[in-house]
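Researcher: Let's do a round of design. I'm pasting the structure tokens now; please hold your answer until I've finished.
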């Protein structure tokens, strides 16, 4: 009896060890931390590439989410950007390039509590940081646009269209159910 318990315990420990090894082996490898871009990188930054990175038209090398999901800049994007983070339209006039670089590199004491956990796992490369800074510098002075009314209008129209489509598709359903009930009741009365 003790021998069976011992074998069971040994097998259970082996299975736990294999499961831990399997789960650890499947965990995504954390990329090595990337420091802030150098001044040469920043000077070579491409504003158009930065706009594409910001909007999500091209993906970040370490698969981080696009900036547009949380931020907006000027009139970029049909419906604007996200509202979780601040509007970055004139951020280059409000912050120095070194402050922007510290935030983009997720480096130092001014990290964003929302960005830090995301970009620790998906850090921006030095060239991506430089391109984003070039884009933010180029957007300084653009008028910030509030596209909330457009989003509300589209939402109302989409809801009305959906209600009409459902009404059209199911327009005969109620009549058919009611007709069957009336027919059954008439038969029972006769």
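Researcher: That's everything. Go ahead.
Model: Designed sequence:
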């Amino acid at each position: 009896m003790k021998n069976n318990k011992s074998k069971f315990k040994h097998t259970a420990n082996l299975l736990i060890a294999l499961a831990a090894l399997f789960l650890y082996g499947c965990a995504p490898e954390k990329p090595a931390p990337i420091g802030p871009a150098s001044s040469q990188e920043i000077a070579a930054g491409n504003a158009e590439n930065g706009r594409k990175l910001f909007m999500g038209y091209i993906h970040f090398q370490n698969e981080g989410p696009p900036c547009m999901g949380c931020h907006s800049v000027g009139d970029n994007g049909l419906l604007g950007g996200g509202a979780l983070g601040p509007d970055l339209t004139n951020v280059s006039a409000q912050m120095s390039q070194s402050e922007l670089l510290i935030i983009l590199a997720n480096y130092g004491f001014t990290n964003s509590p929302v960005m830090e956990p995301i970009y620790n796992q998906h850090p921006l490369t030095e060239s991506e940081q430089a391109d984003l800074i070039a884009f933010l510098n180029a957007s300084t002075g653009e008028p910030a646009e509030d596209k909330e009314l457009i989003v509300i209008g589209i939402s109302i129209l989409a809801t009305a269209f959906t209600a009409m489509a459902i009404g059209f598709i199911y327009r005969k359903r109620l009549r058919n159910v009611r007709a069957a009930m009336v027919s059954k009741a008439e038969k029972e009365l006769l």
